[in-house]
Amino acid sequence: MPVNASDALSLAGRDLISVRDFTRDELIAFLDEAEAFEYYTSPILSGMVMGSLFFEPSTRTNLSFSSAMQRLGGSVLGFADSKVSSTSKGESLADTVRVVENYCDIILLRHPFEGAARLASESTRLPVINAGDGTNQHPTQTLLDLYTIRQKRNALEGLKIAFIGDLKYSRTVHSLIETLSHFDNELFLISPTSLRIPPDFLEELNANGTVYHEDEDFFSIAQDVDVLYSTRIQQERFPDAVEYEKVKNAYRIDRETIEKLGGKATLMHPLPRLNEISMDLDDYPGAAYFDQVRNGVTVRKAVLSLLLGKTRV
Amino acid sequence: MPAEQPPRVPEGSKIKVSALREGTVIDHLVAGTALKVLKILGLDSDRSVTIGLNLESKKMGHKDLIKIERHEVINEEVQKIALVSPNATFSIIRDFHVVQKLSPSLPEMIENLLRCPNPSCVTTDDRVRTKFIVVRTDSLRLRCHYCERTIRKDEIELL
Ligand SMILES: [Zn+2]
Fold this sequence. Notes:
With about 325 residues, chain A is an alpha/beta fold. Chain A is about 35% helix and about 15% strand.
């Protein structure tokens, strides 16, 4: 659906393809709406249908969106894996979308190719939500991360936020860092040299005047860090198994590391985790990774109702 | 890439090209880009074109030069050529005289001209028209409208 820029804060009918498409105020509007949805259960999306097109499987995202839609009274149709869709017969993405738009009110798209959601949105009059396009964007993940930070720290500004692990390939980290540049925070970027954040992102941070520190050493993080965002370090990123073992353990977070860092940090992770976060932290009051999962549903409720133009009554 | 040593042209000598009556002279092209520029212009085969490759240039060391008969470049073409050769100069010739000089500036959006270097970009499907947003012009940065990958000058590849 083409962007309607006439009313900056009207999100009805808009697509959610990339966090880049939204202003700071619009991002905050999503979060505010989500907050209102914390305990809101009326079926305001009753009679509405979400067309859910997963050209690659992603069980968690799929379940989270379906839960949000169904809890608001809406229903879901679609496929969870492209093996069963007609694209395996060579139908183009644009054609698939033009067919499916007749069955639903909003389209959710997951696709292994970067830019697929943007392309889909240009082929339909319906709002399109990007549920992940390759390594590019997954905007509701970014929104739920922002939401969780604001929920746990009561602010989106003036925070010390550390990102730890694979900063080179992590889509989650890239999007969140870019989005945080709308707000005034101090960032710590901790990764092995081989998994440093790509220079293009640093260039953007420099252009935005974001304060950041890059280091390999976990304990270079300030003692009074507010948020620790840990990501998976995947073995396939390392040609050498020994190197992987070293790195894996250097960035593992357990109770001791939390204590060393002041014992107050909010601990986030996009899940699934391998062993980046020790299980003994699951009852640590700052552990927020399961809250992220719950917040995912809340944020998606807000996204669905805002884009569908259905307001709470 | 170290350029091959071009054949020496004696100091002061000029390459002989017939004077242009009507058309465009594109000068100060980065050496090695003339053929790309011709591809951008996509001229029909009945037009006569003179190309100078690897000419000596005081300012640039070496440069390419193109003279095109009976074609006056338009702004859109100038902008596209600026992508491969940002300092190119364009002189519109009428009746053997330069009547206008154009200097390149980049458009905000470049459509269906470049290939996205990202192998998992949705535009690798040939049916999709490519689009790039010009993010910065000082040290050139483009962003693919689809995969959002930032592209540097040395990654630019014409379709
Ligand atoms: Zn691309």
